[in-house]
Amino acid sequence: MRHQRNFRSALSGALLLLLGLGLPVVGQTTGQAASAARPNIIFILADDLGWSDLACYGADLHETPNLDRMAQNGVRFTQAYAMSVCSPTRASLLTGKHAARLHFTVWRESSVDRAAEARRSKNKLLPPETIVDLPHGETTIAELLKAAGYLTFHVGKWHLGDAGHSPETQGFDLNIGGTHWGAPATFFWPFRGAFGQAQEFRYVPGLGVGKPGDYLTDRFTDEALKLIDGAGARPFFLNLWFHSPHTPIEGKPALVEYYRRKLKPGMRHQNLGFAAMVHSLDENVGRILTHLKQRRMAENTLVVFMSDNGGYLSQYRGVQVTNNAPLRSGKGSLYEGGVRVPLIVQWLGVTPRGAVVNELTSSMDFFRTFAEIVGQPGDAAMDGVSLLPLLREPRNRLPREALYFHYPHYYATTSPVSAIREGDWKLLEYFEDNHLELYNLREDLGESRDLAGQQPEQAARLRARLHAWRQQVGAQSPVPNPAELQGRAGQN
């Protein structure tokens, strides 16, 4: 049945592409043509961009005039959240389900390498066995929008499965650049080479002939613009997931030099290459927005810009990549610096200009948002809520009591942990020793004053709610490490 569904989906996609390119197809109906009145949807996702890495969110070194202008023309969210690492966020975006419910709580390579990690681990706990590919049984945004008559395009990072789980198997008509890898070997042409300590050979497919000096972020945008033009009058969904500013930290030399001249002592952001990468990311968002305006498509296109997790704090070639202050910690962590991300939405004629939204929002919310826009039903098991009321009127409130986070893994910034955000309160529970940390984010955005000891009843109430949620969604927990237990027994 699944293969039959894939065949029908592929055939439908081929027919839609012919329509989008202006080629005749027998049986085209007025109902198909009418779907062009629905908004085009472009989802731009940055990789490892921190909450305070944009000028409109307080960056001191980075210049992001195009994203700042997008915020002025649309809605900027101040309390938007993702999962703490990349693949889980991408899975939650496409399905509307929490990564914990999907059992997709860590990036793909880590899940694949779990057995080897377990053999060499000296940690107190071992992570659970998580899935490595987004299951075909999950309905994706692309499949939802395809059913509503949209052309569906994926350009850029995928990181959600092997060749058998590529974008083309998950509802996308076309895929350019999407592979199972989480980062390119290099951002410069020919976009291939040895990556990491294992010297794994990586490449970026689908970009055609290039030349020395070509930059990956630019080339993805080149392809995206071609797809926008090729769609013709058909409504389209463009999933434009940039690799930037993920490592390797490689900015264009001229931009690196520009930021070298701009850098001053005392600035929070100090990484010149990272600043150059953010600059190029912003330029390419500007190219998309300008193209829509020139094609007179801006008023009928919903554009979302978001990051997949907090900024990466480790060093690359001896320099810390970014700084998430005033937020605590970064990628991997469930402190605010790991999960709070920039989110800007522009839908001219619908979103009020320059609005700021302080409601708690999540990467899980876009499935229901897009489903409501196109009038398609969503899965009852989805964890997100529709943001459409906020896009129309930013003073509206969402039917959400709390947000939950779950990372039962180790990372440079954390040990296995779960968290709940309810109103101003944030509780973290660490699995190694079950200790709790409680923060009031209205009074302590930097999570520097742990109130768990002062307010034990509040901490206990939130912990009970967190435990109930974990049971409800079937969240996996880490398990004791036999090797570590044996080591402790030998010391006694």
Essential attributes:
single chain; 492 residues; alpha/beta; Alkaline Phosphatase, subunit A; nine-stranded mixed beta sheet; four-stranded antiparallel beta sheet; 16 helices; 19 strands; globular; disordered N terminus
Can you walk me through this structure?
The protein is an alpha/beta fold and 492 residues long. The chain has one domain (39-400): Alkaline Phosphatase, subunit A (3-Layer(aba) Sandwich), CATH 3.40.720. The chain contains 16 helices and 19 strands. The protein has helices spanning 2-20, 30-34, 65-73, 86-95, 99-102, 108-112, 114-120, 141-147, 216-230, 253-262, 272-294, 336-339, 365-374, 388-392, 456-473, 482-491, and strands at 40-46, 75-81, 125-126, 151-156, 174-176, 193-195, 200-202, 236-241, 301-307, 315-316, 319-320, 340-346, 355-357, 361-362, 403-407, 417-422, 425-430, 436-440, 479-480. The strands form 5 sheets. Strands 1, 2, 4, 5, 8, 9, 12, 13 and 14 form a 9-stranded mixed sheet that branches. The protein is globular, with a radius of gyration of 22 Å. Residues 1-16 and 18-36 have low confidence and may be disordered.
Give the helices and strands, then pairings.
Layout lengths: L1 H19 L9 H5 L5 E7 L18 H9 L1 E7 L4 H10 L3 H4 L5 H5 L1 H7 L4 E2 L14 H7 L3 E6 L17 E3 L16 E3 L4 E3 L13 H15 L5 E6 L11 H10 L9 H23 L6 E7 L7 E2 L2 E2 L15 H4 E7 L8 E3 L3 E2 L2 H10 L13 H5 L10 E5 L9 E6 L2 E6 L5 E5 L15 H18 L5 E2 L1 H10 L1
Parallel strand pairs: 1-8, 1-9, 2-13, 2-14, 4-5, 4-8
Antiparallel strand pairs: 2-12, 3-19, 6-7, 9-12, 10-11, 15-16, 16-17, 17-18
Helix pairs in contact: 3-11, 9-11, 10-11
